[in-house]
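Q: For a teaching handout, I want to show students what a protein-ligand complex looks like in token form. Below are the inputs, and the small molecule is magnesium ion. Please produce the holo structure.
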Amino acid sequence: MLKIEHLTKIYDSGVRALQDVSFEVPDGQFLVIIGLSGSGKSTLLRCINRLIEPTDGRIIWNNTDITDATDEELRQIRRKIGMIFQQFNLVRRAPVMTNVLAGRLGYTNPMWSLVNHFSAEDKRKALEKLNRVGIREKAYIRADQLSGGQQQRVGIARALMQEPELMLADEPVASLDPATSHSVMRYLELLNKEDGITILCSLHFLSLARTYADRIIALKDGRMEFDGLPQEIDDKRFKDIYGEDAVRVEIA
Amino acid sequence: MTNKVPRSSRSALRRLLLVLGIVIGVVIYAYGWTATDISLDEVQDPVRQASVQRAMRELLSPDLFTRDRENRSFFVDFAIGCPDGDLPEGRTDTGDGAYVIFTPPCADSDEIITVEGFHFPADAIARIQLYREGQQNMPFRLVKSDAADAQASDESVFDLDSDGHFRVSVKVPRGRGLSGQTHQVEIQAAVPSGWPRLSATTETVIDKMIETIFLALMATTLALPVAVVLSFVAARNLMRQITLPLGNVLVGFVLLPVGGWLGYQALGPLGQLGVRWGKDVLPGLLGGAGALAGFALVSYALGRVTLAGSAQRVRSVALNALLVAVLVFILGVLGGLGIWLGGKLQTGLLADLGNFVGTLGTLVDLIIATLAAVGGAMWLSSLGASLVAGPMRHIFSPLSNVLGAVLGALSGAILLAMTALFGTQAVLLGLLTPVVAAALGGQLAVELYYLVPGARKPKRDRTDVDQMIHTLLYALGALLAFAITAYAIDLLRAIVDERPPSRAMIDLGLFEMRTYVAKSALIGGVLGGLAAGLAGTQVAFPLGMTVYNTSRTILNALRSIEPLIMGIVFVIWVGVGPFAGVLALTLHSIASLGKLYSEQVESIDAGPIEAIQSTGANRLQTIVYAVVPQIVPPYIAFTMYRWDINVRMSTIIGFVGGGGIGFLLQQQINLLRYNQAGVAVLAIAIVVSILDYASAAIRERIV
Ligand SMILES: Nc1ncnc2c1ncn2[C@@H]1O[C@H](COP(=O)(O)OP(=O)(O)OP(=O)(O)O)[C@@H](O)[C@H]1O
Ligand SMILES: [Mg+2]
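A: Here is the structure, written as tokens, with magnesium ion included.
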């Protein structure tokens, strides 16, 4: 169970990216966060694993207060929270395998990992995860030689190495074409349904959100604008979230 | 307002200002002209013109090659002071088929005669001299022009043409007892033979050039590791995120000297034991292997047991301590082995290798205790800070203020005592204490202001007025603290009279201490205690930015000192030679590479850092997995570039005694041997342009 209580983030520049956001996510839910560009989606997701320090409010996960954790505790918590990114954020010059193994860094002996040594068990697991996202044969290719969709699948494999209970996905398909988008989203769906991983995913397109979400939260200027089931978003709600001039764009 | 002034008068004013500006500019420029002694008199001076011509001609005729010469001598008779009666014949045969014609056939000393020779060795270089048994030969000096009053030149060497013919005007030498006798005149002809080969000068120059290239390489490689480490702490993007609660920072700081002392006492002897055993090889190898095996065993055994929360923490602390000890011991063993190996390898090619490992071993022996102290300080400090991190969260005001005051007082006292110890060394270092006190004082003033209800606001909520009050108060507090400290430690006397601080001691009951240091510590304690007490242990302390600013300041200060000056200092320390050059260039390379590298770190993509951090990796892992892969190519490029620069600089460093080709060049210039200097100049030009080209090519390929 993830509980967000009165979360507020004010950047040093004075921008109020999140204002008093509160909601709860039961285990196993596929939650999609939508909202216009600049509405605070990325900020919200990054506050949850404290890549960004929240200004105020609490984030409680499985009865631990993430916002109150020391550096050491935070590392223990982060191990169980996978994250994937719009820009994939792979180490581009390193082979795919190294990128995937990096997902184990929180578990390995720091000394060994510094010299790029991972246990045979970890390596076996890495190949298995790559297999799962369908790019096992790319294991020893440099990451920057893969297509966007393949790179995102490496990102998912890396997150899977953490054996996460929660997955944060920040616009995972925003730089992919519609077909590839669906294939990546289907992997996330699979993780949600088969492995029971709770997923918080931000998306631009409402149509994608409707297809995959159990529940949708909409942010507008850092505030919660909507929290409910996908089918509850009608034309009026849509205009509330995206503004009066918005037109619905469907993604196949 | 200005709109009311009529247009024409405005433009007139502007024109006047422009003219005035130009006049002032010209005057300033003229002053510069005089100040730099620009004068045409010297340029036109014929003596100077002649010497510069000679210098340039010789510089551009480098003594690159040489070949064997076969010297042949031909003897003919020549009378100085014509005898009475018959004049001797003008043509004289040498007996080897060659002959010369003197015109006139005989002459007095200092008279100019023409000598023409036939059938001498072709293309030879020749000279004519008076041959006297058992005495020094006297050259017939060449006369360049045919005028009657022509002066003889310094030269006596001339070239023969391909028929072995020559015709020269020479001056008959003067000497006691020469006149009125017939002398033997020797015509020496040197005929080149054999293949051209490198001259002795070229060989020395090549030798020195290799030394220079290696000097630059050593400086670059020695600077590399230090610069790499510095570049991470001097990178804003990596350091900015690091903030810790003030309490943790203070605990860590107070533990630094404790850990240093412990490390020195406990680990130092262990390391030295390692060195001793390493020198005896077998005990070293066994001990090292045993230590490693023991550590592996212990960590494996302990790893099998699953422990709960705090017990697990204790285990990892103990394991870390054990690891540090094992590493120090093994480093010692390696040093000892190095010394042993250095003693064994004394001959042939291996001698260099032996010297290398031997010196490294000795270095380890020398610094292992210090290293142990530094290691201990870091370990205990980070351990303390992380151990208190948990409990500290649950300490709130007023207890957090009391704790802050105690820790702050201790830290302030330690900090200023350390700067004061530095300050006893030299006047400028003495400034460090008041400057640090000023930083504390400024912070204290701001903290005092926060006592006003509602004054403590995060930076983003401050209005311009708030910000101004902050700056003003900070400046005021800093100034006050500076003044008080400067007065207390009698800075004026130090600066004006260049006297070291007083050596008076004060008895503190338990131990004695220099009053100077005690005073500084007291001031630090009061300022630090008050500031941290008011702030409380919970306040976020920008540890990263503090480290960043400190390291940037040091890098910039280092970079602003010319390597030439460093060279002079190191020549005083380690004597004339390439080692001084290596040290000077190393120091300068650290500063300059540190800056270049850290700029590369600052420009990397932040995405991978986020990604690696989000897996639960620690800071070191994040750097190794997200930062390092991005910076390797530019680091290689900059290192090449630096090597290139170091080769250039080492030619200059040589001028102050730093070894390498510069040293040779300076000697040759001082001896006015421009032919030889020309070779060195040419060698520098060639090597620098090759390196320049190579490093540009490599940079292009990598980046
Ligand atoms: N590091 C930062 N410093 C200052 N302001 C920031 C920073 N990051 C984001 N912001 C601001 O915070 C607000 C929310 O940004 P955020 O990135 O969370 O939006 P988003 O919903 O993810 O947008 P997008 O869909 O474009 O990714 C924006 O106004 C943005 O300008
Ligand atoms: Mg975003």
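A: Two things your students might notice: The first strand of chain A starts at residue 2 and ends at 10. The longest helix of chain A spans residues 178-195.
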